[in-house]
Amino acid sequence: xxxxxxxxxxxxxxxxxxxxxxxxxxxxxxxxxxxxxxxxxxxxxxxxxxxxxxxxxxxxxxxxxxxxxxxxxxxxxxxxxxxxxxxxxxxxxxxxxxxxxxxxxxxxxxxxxxxxxxxxxxxxxxxxxxxxxxxxxxxxxxxxxxxxxxxxxxxxxxxxxxxxxxxxxxxxxxxxxxxxxxx
Length: 183
What we know:
- The protein has 4 helices and 7 strands.
- It has helices at about 25-40, 130-145, 155-160, 165-170, and strands spanning about 5, 45, 55-60, 75-100, 100-120, 125-130, 180.
- It has a single domain (about 5-175), classed as Peptide Deformylase (Alpha-Beta Complex), CATH 3.90.45.
- The radius of gyration is 16 Å and the shape is globular.
């Protein structure tokens, strides 16, 4: 089932997510719905706060955006109760966007390498290192479960320039091709 993406201004987007356990109600269906919602939007990642749930769960699929020369280097993964262990490497700028903040993009600097601990959809523990685009998408979604939006990392002048757009998103004065829930 395609879920509504919560728009900028919804309080759940600013809440730190709570850890979940394997007996979280209807977890398998929730994860399936998150994948379906993310692809419909279309996105490369979706965090539970973006669908109104203040929990530590997100999905990522970078396989769909990898260049031909990087085929096989993308990931398609469920992350539950993720914990950042380390970020290293040179910071690199990249123009990011967000399904909860449509039609707004901005250059965000993030470290190239991320080491993470998480549980998969079967609650099997993993620890792994990700780099470049995989790291960036995970970092972006991880920020969501921490209650942080990418626009908070933009330079002050860019933040001022997007204020009107942000206010319009809050008020629902935006047109998108996916279901959204506004304040």
